[in-house]
Automatic annotation (TrEMBL):
GO function terms (MF aspect): N-acetylglucosamine-6-phosphate deacetylase activity
Matching PANTHER family: N-ACETYLGLUCOSAMINE-6-PHOSPHATE DEACETYLASE (PTHR11113)
InterPro entries: Amidohydro-rel, GlcNAc_6-P_deAcase, Metal-dep_hydrolase_composite, Metal_Hydrolase
UniProt keyword list: Carbohydrate metabolism, Hydrolase, Metal-binding
Designated name of the protein: N-acetylglucosamine-6-phosphate deacetylase
Provenance organism: Rhizobium beringeri
EC number(s) on file: 3.5.1.25
Amidohydrolase-related domain: residues covered: 52-381
Signal peptide start and end residues: none
UniProt cross-references to Pfam families, sorted A to Z: Amidohydro_1
Length: 383
């Protein structure tokens, strides 16, 4: 048995902090959190203060390290993207294919099968489109959007069985309640997004098994006092999870603070980056479906825009969202960490990660007191 013993940092187990304790890892899995005076033999890893937490989980990553998944939907691209986000504490992510051709979707599914088996941080696949609403297209191409067909349902179910974790963003207008129910019962994670639907239409799909909404507030019908829209339905529905982009550009912090206070039930808000290829890259532009996206510096972090000013994903990384949450959203450090670890794990039903309990993966991140990442580990090995 290969055992490592991590000492010297506060340990956050996904629920609470442990002071003056050690994290014991055996064969890549968490064995225990133990008192410092009662430790087994093993390699001691001494950390210089700060916090040791489960690694971050990002359910929406379009690119990183100079690579966009849409440009080359391959296992190699997924590995490069995962590696580009690891310095920012992300140890599990879903490479995300935005609206594209059927051929691109098929390629991404095949790539994800291989990338998940490699066990280097790719935890599944997120297909954000093509079943979105043109009325809320955002930076996606409306001409590629279409309703869900029976063949799509069958393909998603097969993909979920092969990959393990498949998240699909769909507009309520493009998928029927019966289709949502069939997909959910087969284990596909459905998120409603890029949708101009009524709150009633959203609630019907949540009740049928849709688990969440994609980037709350962005590209969706807004909260009105007589027409609550998708925003209102998501906040009010007790079992619905809500991804949020906390970068200072996508949503005003007042709106996020309001949503955090108002969210009802067991579903929670959790962080996603919606990151594009420029995260982990020094470039200032890239192309998206033949259109130039440029980086505009300023604010909490830089933003990414098309020529008409439309936001095109984000330039934020996961540790920055945690800092944003603590600084601007009135979050405790514990809750900000949960929003990057425990909550996305629960949303995606990744029971073996996102917290530090006996038997979970030893995917770890060490943070300084100033919330800078110093190191990450995948299954207990330095990454």
């Amino acid at each position: 048995m290969v055992r490592k013993i991590f000492v010297g940092a506060r340990i956050f187990d996904g629920e609470r902090f442990h002071d003056d304790k050690a994290l014991i890892v055996a064969d890549g899995r968490v064995e225990a959190i133990a008192a410092r005076n009662d430790l087994p033999d093993g390699e001691v890893v001494t950390l210089a203060g700060g916090v040791l937490s489960a690694g971050f989980i990002d359910a929406q990553v379009n690119g990183g390290a100079g690579r966009m998944l849409n440009d080359e939907p391959s296992a190699a691209s997924m590995d490069i993207i995962a590696g580009g986000h690891r310095p920012y504490g992300t140890t599990s992510l879903l490479p995300t294919l935005i609206t594209d051709t059927s051929e691109a979707s098929i390629a991404a599914i095949e790539a994800a099968k291989e990338a998940v088996k490699a066990n280097r941080g790719v935890a599944g696949l997120h297909l954000e489109g093509p079943h979105l609403a043109p009325a809320r297209k955002g930076a996606h191409l409306a001409e590629l959007m279409r309703p869900v067909e029976d063949r799509d349902v069958k393909a998603f179910i097969r993909a979920r069985e092969a990959i393990g974790t498949l998240l699909v963003t769909m507009a309520a207008e493009q998928v029927t309640v019966a289709q949502v129910r069939e997909l959910a019962e087969a284990g596909v994670t459905i998120s409603i997004g890029h949708s101009d639907c009524s709150s009633e239409a959203a609630e019907e799909r949540f009740d049928a098994g849709a688990r969440g909404v994609t980037h709350l507030f962005n590209a969706m019908s807004q909260l009105g006092h007589r027409a609550p829209g998708l925003v209102g339905a998501a906040i009010d529905h007790p079992s619905t999870w809500c991804g949020i982009i906390a970068d200072g550009h996508h949503v005003d912090p007042k709106a996020l603070r309001t949503a955090l206070r108002a969210k009802r039930g067991e579903g929670k808000l959790f962080f996603v980056t919606d990151a594009m290829s420029l995260v982990g890259s020094e470039k200032d532009s890239f192309t998206l479906n033949g259109r130039t996206v440029r980086r505009e510096r300023g604010g909490f972090c830089s933003k990414l825009v098309l020529s008409d000013g439309t936001l095109a994903g984000s330039d934020v990384d996961m540790i920055s969202t945690i800092r944003y949450g603590v600084t601007y959203l009135d979050l405790t450090l514990a809750e900000a960490l949960r929003m990057a670890t425990l909550y996305p794990a629960r949303f995606l039903r990744l029971a073996d990660r996102g917290h530090l309990s006996p038997g979970t993966r030893a995917d770890l991140v060490h943070l300084t007191d100033a919330l800078a990442v110093t190191a990450t580990w995948l299954s207990g090995e330095a990454a």
